[in-house]
Write a structure and sequence with these properties.
Blueprint lengths: L8 E6 L5 H9 L7 E3 L7 E9 L6 H5 L3 E9 L1 E2 L11 E2 L7 H9 L3 E5 L8 E2 L2 E2 H6 L11 E14 L2 E8 L5 H12 L3 E11 L2 E2 L4 E2 H19 L1
Parallel strand pairs: 1-14, 3-12
Antiparallel strand pairs: 1-3, 2-3, 4-11, 4-12, 5-6, 7-10, 8-9, 10-11, 12-13
Enzyme class: isomerase
Keywords: Isomerase, tRNA processing
GO molecular function, one term: RNA binding
Length: 233
């Protein structure tokens, strides 16, 4: 039985095109009187592990946010978009025929370790109390300097190279934007790049392999509510 007031830590496999808040809202609609929050945003075009905390366990959100993350995905070389992924149309294209696999592997290797990273304009970062993406989506010019943040890439490996796309696995610190990593790889190669797929596979010791599909979780919550109501009668 779930105890949402005392608190639950739920692992959810976020579906494609859902926002992280969509998942929170879906669960909150089942128990409107309790707190529900997530421990780390996933972009709408990303899938994978989302940690949801309820009730008293929402006090642990900051702890889970600070854990190391693991992602798998694909980077499309030679094309860029304003959002750094495929949410918006391409705004530039460059020839990549001169690139060798050795060039790409060398550049990827150079991103391992501590470094400064500039977050995307389309991100949930707050500047002057407002989310950047809200201003960007309205087509307004971002006239505020987005300061780089220190991150750490613990591992960055290429798992497949079928140009113009490269598949990868990344293990990184809190605050790392994989869209920014894709952008930076493209810039260092001199051809531009964007993220074409992303899946979060681990947060600390938690794995997406143990996560609920959202439809199954909601059905389980409904079953628990029915059992609880029957016991109260």
């Amino acid at each position: 039985m779930f105890d949402f007031i005392e608190g639950e830590v739920l692992l959810v496999d976020k579906p494609l095109k859902w926002t992280s808040f969509d998942v929170v809202k879906k669960i909150r609609n089942q128990h409107k009187a309790i707190k529900v929050g997530h421990a780390g945003t996933l972009d709408p075009l990303a899938t994978g592990l989302l940690i949801i905390c309820t009730g008293k366990k929402t006090k642990q959100i900051e702890h889970y946010q600070g854990l190391t993350k693991e992602y798998t995905g694909r980077i499309l070389l030679g094309k860029t978009t304003p959002t750094l992924d495929l949410e918006m149309p391409f705004d530039s294209e460059h020839d990549i025929s001169h690139l060798t696999k050795e060039d790409i592997l060398e550049v990827v290797k150079s991103f391992t370790g501590r470094q400064l990273q500039v977050p995307p304009v389309f991100s949930a970062i707050k500047i002057d109390g407002k989310r950047l993406y809200k201003k960007a989506r309205k087509g307004k010019e971002i006239d505020i300097e987005i300061k780089p943040r220190e991150i750490e890439i613990h591992a960055f490996e290429i798992t497949d190279m079928s140009l113009p796309e490269i598949s990868f696995r990344v293990v990184c610190s809190k605050g790392t934007y994989i869209r920014s990593l894709a952008r930076d790889v493209g810039e260092k190669l001199g051809v531009g790049a964007c993220l074409s797929a992303l899946r979060r596979t681990k947060i600390g010791d938690f794995s997406v392999e143990n996560a609920w599909q959202i439809t199954d979780l909601i059905e389980k919550i409904k079953e628990n509510k029915q059992i609880a109501n029957t016991q109260q009668k």
